[in-house]
Design brief:
With about 260 residues, the chain is α/β, with parallel strands linked by helices. It is about 20% helix and about 35% strand. It has two domains: about 5-75, no CATH class; about 100-265, no CATH class. A hairpin with a 2-residue loop joins strand 8 and strand 9 (about 125-135). The longest helix has 13 residues, at about 240-250. The model is unreliable at about 90-110 (pLDDT under 50).
Amino acid sequence: MPRMLDVSDDVRAEIGDEEADRLLAGEDAPGSYDCTSCRTPGNSEQERTSTVLFVGEETAVLAFAHATCIPSQVVPVSEEQLRGAVRSITGEDAAPAPGTPAAPLPTTDRQATLGITCGLVLINEELHPALVVEPNGPIARPGSTSLDDDFLPLLLEHGFTPVSDMNQRPAPIAGWSALLAMGKLHAVLQPGTTGAQSAWWQAHQPLAVSDGWRTAANKEKTVLMYAAPSGTIGHQPREDLMRQALEQAAAKGLLVAAAMPLAGT
């Protein structure tokens, strides 16, 4: 039975015309599915459905989403991220708690790790999806033997701006994005030296986010990222306590931020 599928030109170019036509004819497409964006059931026989192709270095995975959630698109991810996404679909991964330390910061020789907490931040009476980033130790410049913490200076050089008022929305930053795949946070991407994006932060396991955070992120297509030096914010158990810690960090001049687009689903 034909499916109500949207297959973008980019997806068609990756999978080929023959496979795309089979999908549209209903030969290789499921009738029912779990939306890769909102994680609720969908049916490609009854509602418009987007084909979303996750592409790694060696592997590609085709997923489906409500067309009202996201458009049909190709989402480049690392091979490790793609395997993690597949494991999350099959239920083999237990979701880590927010703030779980991630991979070492790629821009430093020191083996500090970054903790990321996902939460909603109230700005002008509107809730915005936010990432709060804090290392578990000082961050040094590449090749430096200094014991100084250069975490904030490095981010300022990359285009982040100091936060003096938490009621002001952070300015956009060029070339950065937050990668949400299969409904979980996989990475924060930064501009690469060759033009393609590279992972600035990458989760050891896909990071679970709340339904409210995911809904807000998919609605706005933008994520706010706040960053502070080690020992400034801490892993706060509630969003009101996180907001209080952010305001205290801003008052001390120890908080930078940027608004970046949401990549993927």
